[in-house]
Design a protein that fits this description.
4 copies of one chain form a homotetramer. With about 325 residues, chain A is an alpha/beta fold. The first copy, chain A, has 11 helices and 10 strands. Chain A folds into 2 domains: about 290 residues, TIM Barrel (Alpha-Beta Barrel); about 30 residues. Helix content of chain A is about 45%, strand content about 15%. In chain A, helix 2 links the parallel strand 2 and strand 3. Chain A is globular. Chains C and D meet through helix 9 and helix 11 of C and helix 9 and helix 11 of D.
């Protein structure tokens, strides 16, 4: 079985632009951590900067994780929830903001070290633009790459997993798709810079997740991390895994194993109106249900199916293998 | 179990704009009909005008159907495959074309009568526009409604099921969504005018099929017919049912039964590169797998789930009920 | 020239799910009203419940509007920014919530009367569902219609303009498209219930706005109100009008005049990182630029173009008429 | 002014899956070439294999082009219109088909040499898959890269411009997005392999064309060719340029000049029901209208606008600069 983790904030309150105070009540951090530890199969958590962890509370948070036998899988620096990042962080037009973003990221590197965590999951969601003619695209993309290179070069003990998403909160984000982001990672020429796939972000990008996995692994083993959720294909609805799609999750888990991905399968959702713990637990259970079928024998059956490419046969195989 | 049917042409050759001669070889009509009759659970076929049936061969086609114990479920008038309809049929700007479209539809009514078929499935795919400022929208929509009313009023023994689709072959089709088309049907004020849902068309329209079923049934029991296929949500890919989505087909079959839909479940696909018979058979098998779980007890469980509205619980129920 | 208005909150702070405290600073209400009054051509404002107006401050707000010579064009009841509406308002499963929603709407009717405002723009954005099997769709849609009917029947001096949007904040909203919402309006059988088109919501729904206008006007003169903004076609980006599209706004203004729409053209945007006043002013200027070209002579030219339906000719006409 | 060209077949008959015989009548090749030569500003044509040019008629076609003073801008090998390519060409599972695809491409190289043409525009539209579990993605993507490398390495006098498109005719094409295709081009490690942007394909991929230009130019000056058309953002509608969008074409032309793109601006449309010559001429006129405004002074104004990033200011500038 793969290693399963969750993003801590998924268990807490979640808001949107219309209900900014959130749909639920905020819970104490220790309660969130306890809930995470109770989800069957979950051994790790990801912590979002500001929301979950900061230089001030990192030791305390580390203790709580230890108390509940949870590993810190990644820190996700907060490049998005503060007014100062509203027009970008690592690629902002304002040099002072870029400087602050670099310094803050180094701070996150320190937090990671304190927590024995080896991955920073970078999602610079505010880095991009909303309108045409609003960005000096060439220059600002260069800022982004150079700043990531500077940080990663100075932190060889940490892996930097770049998470892409086509849009939201910007109409166009610079790290938009698997291959765009891989190009940026490769441009740094550093082994410790790779890519995170969020399945929902990939759907919105029109990608078949399995193919994104293959591209990242084939061009330099650059798949560093996985976030799981489901959506209707048009927006990052951040739903329970399996609540919309089914066959593609089989193909996704097949290629993760086939390309020897050994990282975490992390749940990343926004259960606005749902019980967070339940939503994450159900997602893990769904993926484990699929994973448990992927024995060595079944892996070979799948290879054979793919090499024949007969869709009728594959659909029949899916129905007979998975459904009662 | 519901009544299952297929569209005959799905078994034959299929082309697109790049490979206009088609991906497969054309088969003799009798062979198509024989193949249809061999699909487990299928008792009826739909015939497309020109492609499958015309005034000239209707008797012969009727014999073939009888020989293979198949019922003619509907005739789909050909409003799309001839140059004369290229700029519209029942709503064309040219009055001569509108007249021809009306006459041709009456011809199809006659064919239906000869075949003991009580439904015309109208899909005027060329009726719409591609560019802004290209259509006198008010006038042309009125032509469409009036001409359908004229035909349906004169043919009270035939049901006219209006099939909607947001785009293709026009960038904007006049019968675009469930509710647009229901409004048009109601405007005729005729009991024998209703609506066909094609699941794939509904996905492209951004509809939840279950809700479209409810709307059509609640506002006057106007769901006349169902076409089934699957796609990725952005285009009418016309794929095997269940090859992309799963939970929504459960909800779809629930609401068909809950609203006492007694019509056919018809497979409508474009298996460009697949074995047509296999693609249709697999689709039927997938739907029957779901349908067979929907016992009276399960129907009540579903009602209870919907009334509680707890998504975590519903997803868990789906996983435990359907997956091994 | 048409009557132009804006939504007051567009001038203030705007947030999203990642930056919940907002991208800008909050301004005093009087400052917002003053800014609105300064936008060239703007004579009215729309007020959102809770955010802009409540029973407690309605008199004070009325004074401010009077001081700045602004008319209250509509009140938009707050069905979305409070935790109690998080799972729906007028169609909530919980009868107590539905009751509160009705009472609150009557409160808004009173506010409108105090402000000499004749329109309530109802956008029950939380009414819908996120997951399949989460809603008793038939029952909840009925609640929505019956409650709107009850309120509107008791308030014959007020027009109720139902604003549709396919998704956000729910993955599926019950008032999703022009025709769905028109059906609901017609089901009330009340003259004072109609529909609001938000151009951006219509784009997301895949609608051509011009055709939505025609449908609403042809089936009973039910277009009650217009909200304007632009987006990239996939999400409600709420951008400056004309920043993405051009020709369709010409067609939109043509059909508004052609169908004798005499209501307001109201700007509804989310200028997250922009100067709000500037964004709204530029949108008004863009629409007025188009409107000023639509002389009686040009209206006739457009009718002729539409009746000929020659896209090459229409595009040439657009280029020569509008571009330098 | 940039160099403008068109794809010859755009002037002829065009079909779709419903009207496979096409919406118009086929014209003699010489008539198509004559029509191309009459479009103001057009100096070159692209020829599609099989449809427009083959080894058998290449000399004759060359004469016709010379007679009408037209340059052959590129040859687009036919990897899509023959049954043998229905399941892929350069990446087909069947080694015999891959071999034929390589041989045929070398044939096209020869045709290009005979016509004094230095570019092959490769669009292997059938290379991809429709269903999950249908492709050995890693292996088949490798075939594609290796075969292109083999061909390009053996033909150093020819540039190979790889044209991407997310879907159609396959639900997932291997050359799907700008960056995916750039990665493949870079993997060949050959200077004569680059990328073609088709603006409409980029819209469907959710790309901002300007950013795709920047990515291709920044990572190795790999933008080899440009195809122009417009669409509604969801499908490759292949419409007249400017019929949907406006501001983005300004940004597109800015970045082409800013990154010193010196290739052709080629019109690539499917004027199904339109006069082909008119559709192409209007597209060229629209782009030239924009281009003629982009003086050195305006280029500097645009740089300043982009560096400030004030969307209100940019939209005002666009309105005042371009509209009457």
């Amino acid at each position: 079985m793969a290693k399963y983790s969750i993003i801590l904030g998924n268990l807490g309150n979640t808001c949107d632009r219309f209900l900014s105070s959130g749909y639920k009540d905020a819970l104490p951090k220790e309660e969130l951590i306890k809930q995470a530890s109770q989800i069957e199969g979950v051994k790790g958590v990801e912590l979002v900067g500001t929301w979950d962890v900061s230089s001030d509370n990192v030791d305390k948070v580390g203790e709580m994780l230890a108390n509940h036998n949870l590993q810190c899988v990644s820190i996700i620096p907060d490049y998005f929830s503060q007014k100062r990042w509203g027009r970008g962080s690592l690629s902002a037009k304002d040099p002072e903001i870029r400087k602050q973003a670099i310094e803050y990221t180094f701070e996150c590197v320190e937090m990671a070290r304190k927590l024995g965590c080896t991955t920073l999951n970078l999602w610079p969601g505010q880095d991009g633009y909303d309108y045409v003619l609003q960005s000096n695209i060439a220059l600002e993309r260069r800022y982004l790459m150079e700043n990531i290179r500077e940080i990663a070069k100075a932190s060889p003990d940490i892996n930097f997993a770049l998470e892409y998403k086509p849009k939201e909160p910007r109409n166009f984000c610079f790290m938009a798709r698997a291959s765009d982001t891989l190009l940026l990672a490769k441009e740094t020429a550093l082994d410790n810079v790779g890519v995170t796939i969020d399945t929902g972000h990939a759907f919105v990008a029109g990608e078949n997740v399995a193919e994104s996995i293959v591209i990242l692994q084939e061009y330099g083993r650059k798949l560093f991390h996985m976030h799981f959720n489901d959506n209707y294909g048009h927006w990052d609805d951040d739903m329970i895994v399996g609540s919309v799609h089914f066959p593609l999750f089989v193909e996704t888990l097949f290629w993760l194993r086939e390309t020897n991905y050994t990282g975490w399968l992390s749940m990343d959702q926004y259960p606005y109106r749902e019980d967070g713990q339940g939503a994450l637990a159900e997602s893990v259970a769904f993926l484990q249900m699929i994973e448990s079928r992927l024995t060595d024998g079944v892996m070979q059956e799948l290879r054979d199916l793919m090499n024949r490419g007969n869709a009728v046969e594959s659909q029949r195989w899916l129905r007979r293998t998975f459904f009662k």
